[in-house]
Amino acid sequence: MTAITLIEEAGTLNSRLAALDLAGRLSLVAGLGGRVVFTTSLGIEDQVITAEIGNHRLPIEVATLQTGRLFPETLALIDETESQYDIRIVRYEPEQADIDAYAAKYGLNGFYESVEARHACCGVRKLKPLARALSGATIWITGLRRGQSANRADTPFAEYDPERNLIKVNPLADWDIDTIRAYVADNGVPVNPLHQRGYPSIGCEPCTRAIKPGEPERAGRWWWENDEKRECGLHVHEETAAVAQ
């Protein structure tokens, strides 16, 4: 499809999703046809979406980016989630040659030294595996919420992703964290124990810390950088990411 067609379809879908509950949103998207992929980081938001997919047996592929530097708690949760919902979470890993090339240029933990090096690490461990996960997909589902950060305050339910030429759906865009927690408690959803230790947003272990009282949810991600809008690039268009560097 052309970009113009996808932009129009995303606009229409955005309006339709706004009137539905989460189960309705996911069912609608699953029934549109084509390959639908949900990428999960195993955070509390993503666990809610996975629970709905599993409980309703929706034809949505579930994938995760196994960066090679995730917390042990996150890795254990992948197995627990698969077992509880009788689903398969496909792991997409970075290529060893890319990791070796990064280490040769920046050092294994060179991401602490510069924004350029950090973006390069995210590129190797997250963006390239994501490209493989979404290859051939028509719809990409994410757990983005407006309340996660100021950078995500205008997150729509559906939008055109020009980098990947597909429609990106954010079914939890209007959910707040209290609603998320209530769903988890009411439905026995397994969650990462790090959430109870002050980690509302969990990524790679070297790049994530617990947040301090009063800090925004994503303050613990790449905490050594000064840019309040810091992202890994998964949800930032190429031109925006270039400015951030």
From TrEMBL:
GO molecular function, one term: phosphoadenylyl-sulfate reductase (thioredoxin) activity
All residue ranges annotated as the Phosphoadenosine phosphosulphate reductase domain in the record: 36-210
Keywords: Cytoplasm, Iron, Iron-sulfur, Metal-binding, Oxidoreductase
Database matches in InterPro entries: APS_reductase (IPR011798), PAPS/APS_Rdtase (IPR004511), PAPS_reduct_dom (IPR002500), Rossmann-like_a/b/a_fold (IPR014729)
Subcellular location: Cytoplasm
Pathway: Sulfur metabolism; hydrogen sulfide biosynthesis; sulfite from sulfate
Cofactor note: Binds 1 [4Fe-4S] cluster per subunit.
Keyword Transcription: no
Needed cofactors: [4Fe-4S] cluster
Catalyzed reaction equations: [thioredoxin]-disulfide + sulfite + AMP + 2 H(+) = adenosine 5'-phosphosulfate + [thioredoxin]-dithiol
Positions contributing to [4Fe-4S] cluster binding: C121, C122, C204, C207
General function of this protein: Catalyzes the formation of sulfite from adenosine 5'-phosphosulfate (APS) using thioredoxin as an electron donor.
Family: Belongs to the PAPS reductase family. CysH subfamily.
Protein name: Adenosine 5'-phosphosulfate reductase
Species assigned in the record: Rhizobium mayense
